[in-house]
Amino acid sequence: QVQAVLTLLRLMVWLPFSAQFAVRLLLTIQVLGATTIFFLLGSYNAKHKRRFEEADVARKPLAHSLLNQAEDATSEAEVLNPFENTTWRLTFYERCKVALLSVSLFPIRLVLALSAFVTGYLLTVILLRLRLKAVAKLWLSICCRIFLFCFGFLYISVKGKPAPGVGVLVSNHCTVFDGLVWTAMCTPVIFAEQSNFQSAFWKVFAEALDMVLFDRSGQDSRMQARKLMAAAAAKAASGSEKPVLVFPG
Fold this sequence. Notes:
The chain contains ten helices and four strands; from the N terminus they run H-H-H-H-H-H-H-E-H-E-H-E-H-E. Helix 2 runs antiparallel to helix 5, helix 6 packs antiparallel against helix 7 and helix 7 crosses helix 8. By secondary structure, it is mainly alpha-helical. Helix content is 57%, strand content 6%. It has helices at residues 2-12, 17-40, 44-47, 49-58, 92-103, 105-129, 133-150, 177-185, 200-208, 219-238; strands at residues 168-170, 189-193, 212-214, 244-246.
């Protein structure tokens, strides 16, 4: 970052006055923004301290637990604690890094991601009107990969291969990127609640990806959704359709 700023200052000597003013204004806004973000992050650790303490208490075994009676050969230092979240601890270096990247790299990534999103939507509408649904699905899969690339997922490592006859894929659902990853990798059959796709804007994506929309407001509708999911999973197990993607909640 420092080297890039020095290089930019050297180039400013050869720029016209109007361009120099624009560059100086941009640098001033970036410096003010980075400084503001840096000081705002100063309260981040203290704000999330309670969450760490609650997780630390939750991971402690009960005194009467049967698990305490078993001796584990693995030392406590070698066991990862699934309840402890240490990602919120920000050091001085991390605060500087987040502040600088927020005013330099993040705006570029945001513009690229929005461009991929808008382009993906417009071209999908055109392809659907031309009745090229298979091409539209492929195009959305590519757009999802571009979207992930813009936000830093340069490479997605895949271990192993799905076994033949798989009808259902069960996945964690921690962030909004989970669905994008699956769509970019294998475009599975996605079941989604109908209320989330009421607008015409989101219905374009649902139609292109062959989403199965269902209403779970009542017992009959939930039963119907189970039947649809079972039928889709049976088709996937036979090899005629893609597997069904399920996010257990």
